Amino acid sequence: MTTLVAVQGDITAQTSDAIVNAANNAMRGGGGVDGAIHRAGGPEILRECIARFPNGLATGDAGWTTGGRLPARWIVHTVGPNHGAGQRDRALLESCYRRSLEVADELGARSVAFPLISAGVYAWPRREAISAAIDTIASTPTSIEEVLLVAYDAKAHQEISSALAMATSVRILQGARELHRRGYHGLRVRPAVAPSGMYWRVVLYDPAEPDSGIHYTSGAGTEFAGGHVDAMSAPGDVADLILRALPGLQATNDAPAYAAWFAGLVAAAEPQHALPVASADYFDDTDGWEIGWCSGLRYPKPPE
Ligand code: APR
C-alpha cells in the first residue's frame, strides 16, 4: 500500500530514502531544485553525474546518484519536458514520475520525495503538473511505501492538497466507469455542487431500485460507500465498493450508449481533475453538463 502526502518545505531537507531532482538533459547542475540539491549535497553529486551520465539524460528518463551530504541516501535525477520551450507532451512529464519510481524501486528505496517536476523554470501549468504527478504516482505499480509531493511554498502546498481531494472525487467517477466496463450499465451517476458552492456532490444509483443510492460529498473526504477512497485508490477497488453498496445492480450490458457517454465524461474530467456538474443554481443544463464548476465548459447531457 503506497501513501501519497503533500508536504511543504525544501526538497534537500527531506529525509526520504530518495529525493527526486528536477534536472536538465546535460545533468551538470542548474538552478531551482537542481541548484539547491547540488549546493546542499556537495561536489560529490556533480562528480557522480559526470561519471554516470557522460552523455546526459533524456527528457522523461531517470537515473540515480548517491545523496552526497544530503539526508536522503539517493538522488533520482529526472528531466522534465520544458513547456516554455514547446515540449508539451504530458506523457513525457508522466514518464518522469514513472521512471523515477522504477529507479527508486530498483534501489530498494521505501520512501521518495518529489518536487513538482517542470512546474518551475520549465513553466508547466501548475494545475496540470500536479494532476500529472498525482495520477501517474497513483497508477504506477511500486513497492515504495511513502511518496511525498514537496511544495516549496504555502500556495503550492494548498494547490497540491486541494488536487489530492479532487483526485479522490475523480477516483469515484473512474470506479463507476470501471463498473460500466464490467457490464453494469444500470449504474447511473449524477454530480452536482452543494448550494454553498464549497463541495462537489455525486449520487450513484440504480434506477431499478429508486430507494438505493450512494451519496458522496467532497466534504466527507475519503469516506465513501462505507469504505475508504483517496487519490491513490485503484478504480477497480472503488468499483468493488460501489457494487457492495448497490447489491441489486446486474451486469446486463444493456445500455452501451450510456456507458460510452459516461466514459467520455470521465475522459473530459481527468486531465485537469475538472469535476462534472449536472445542475447547480448558477446554470441550466440546456447546453449540457459542466466540466469543472464555473468553467463554462459543457458536455452533452446523458442519452435518454
Ligand atoms: N525544494 C522544493 N521545491 C523547489 C525547490 C526546493 N529547494 N526549489 C524550487 N522548487 C520548486 C519550484 O517552485 C517548482 O514548483 O520545484 C518545482 C520545479 O522547479 P525547477 O527547479 O525550476 O524545475 P523545472 O521546472 O523542472 O525546471 C528544470 O530548471 O533548475 C533548472 O537545471 C534545472 O534546467 C533545469 C530546469
Description:
With 304 residues, the chain is of the alpha/beta class. The chain has 2 domains: 3-152, 3-Layer(aba) Sandwich (Leucine Aminopeptidase, subunit E, domain 1); 167-299, no CATH class. The protein is 35% helix and 20% strand. The protein contains 7 helices and 14 strands. It has helices spanning 32-41, 43-52, 90-107, 126-139, 154-181, 235-245, 256-269; strands at 3-8, 18-23, 62-66, 74-79, 111-114, 146-151, 188-193, 200-205, 214-217, 223-224, 227-228, 276-277, 289-291, 298-299. The strands form 4 sheets. A 6-stranded mixed beta sheet has the order 1-6-5-2-4-3, with helices on both faces. It is elongated. It starts with a strand and ends in a 5-residue tail after the last strand. The model has no long low-confidence stretch (mean pLDDT 96). The structure holds adenosine-5-diphosphoribose. Residues 10-12, 22-24, 30-36, 80, 115-122, 150, 152, 156 line the site of adenosine-5-diphosphoribose.
What's this, in brief?
This protein is an alpha/beta fold. The protein has helices spanning 32-41, 43-52, 90-107, 126-139, 154-181, 235-245, 256-269, and strands at residues 3-8, 18-23, 62-66, 74-79, 111-114, 146-151, 188-193, 200-205, 214-217, 223-224, 227-228, 276-277, 289-291, 298-299.
